[in-house]
Design a protein that fits this description.
By secondary structure, this protein is mainly alpha-helical. It contains nine helices and no strands. Helix 3 runs antiparallel to helix 4. It starts with a helix and ends in a 6-residue tail after the last helix.
């Protein structure tokens, strides 16, 4: 083999493969680093919030203000989302069970669908789309205006002052929003089943009560609370790391919404598998 063949320049395919490998590696490492920073913020906020609550200096007023803001931006959309969701679930399930001659099971199937999957996911989507966007925009604007740096200079911890009240507000609102969506979704499914699918009210509620247990509602509330915590931590992390002026704030808001929704979907899949394994559907 000649010396020319030994030192041939890399081909275009080799260059492209190297670029793809480098980009993939950078993306994976960046994602892991972002996840680590979000976990650190969440752990730090949880610790600081617990200490403040124990010392009776928790920011109750700021938490209630943030909670009221989240209610204003998510309450009406949650109702508008829950109604068509309950209708769609009941209509689709009703068409299937009607062909099997089991119309009385529409209440059980529709109710479980709303409680176990629909309500927690709808809560997460609303909190991730409206709540996370607002939180990331607020913290991002404060960051690019150097208000966060000024707080650090004055000895004020931004995690304690800005992040802890927002996390507490989100975890307070998430289960309440979940309950609202369950109520509206099940009611909408009941109305469709009775008026369109000719299901008697008694058989609907009988099947609903036969297969829906209190543990299903508790699992739904716990899932909504975990989703809310995940969403707000991601939003705070992206907001506090915003840079580059208004464009950076917009990028942070977009990243917060996309990352929160993607993380909630993955977490919901894992929780569903665990719950199905240990708490299968059974007659109440």
């Amino acid at each position: 083999m000649s010396s020319t063949e030994l030192f041939d320049p890399p081909t275009e395919q080799a260059k492209a493969a190297e670029v793809l490998r480098r980009n993939f590696t950078e993306t994976v490492l960046s994602s892991v680093a972002t996840f680590g920073r979000a976990l650190r913020i969440g752990a730090s906020a949880t610790r600081i919030g617990a200490v403040d609550a124990f010392r009776l200096r928790f920011q109750v007023h700021e938490t209630l203000a943030q909670a009221w803001f989240l209610i204003r931006v998510t309450a009406i959309p949650s109702i508008l989302m829950a109604i068509p969701f309950g209708v769609i679930v009941s209509a689709q399930v009703g068409n299937i069970v009607s062909q099997l001659g089991a119309d009385s099971m529409i209440g059980a199937a529709g109710g479980l669908g709303v409680i176990k999957q629909g309500a927690p996911m709808a809560t997460a989507m609303l909190l991730g789309g409206a709540g996370a966007a607002a939180i990331a925009a607020d913290l991002g604007a404060r960051t690019v205006r150097e208000e966060v740096d000024a707080m650090r200079v004055m000895g004020v911890d931004p995690i304690q002052r800005l992040v802890v009240p927002r996390i507490a507000a989100m975890m307070l609102i998430a289960p309440l929003l979940n309950i609202l969506i369950i109520f509206v979704g099940v009611t909408a499914g009941f109305a469709v089943s009775v008026t369109v699918l000719n299901v008697t009210p008694g058989s609907y509620w009988e099947s609903f009560g036969s297969f829906t247990t209190p543990i299903d509602v508790w699992v739904s509330l716990i899932k909504a609370t975990l989703f809310g915590f995940l969403v707000v931590v991601i939003a705070c992390q992206r907001g506090l790391e915003a840079k580059g002026g208004p464009r950076g704030v917009a990028d942070g808001v977009n990243a917060a919404v996309v990352m929160s929704v993607a993380a909630v979907v993955v977490l919901n899949t894992a929780i569903t598998q665990v719950v199905t394994m240990f708490l299968p559907v059974r007659i109440a």
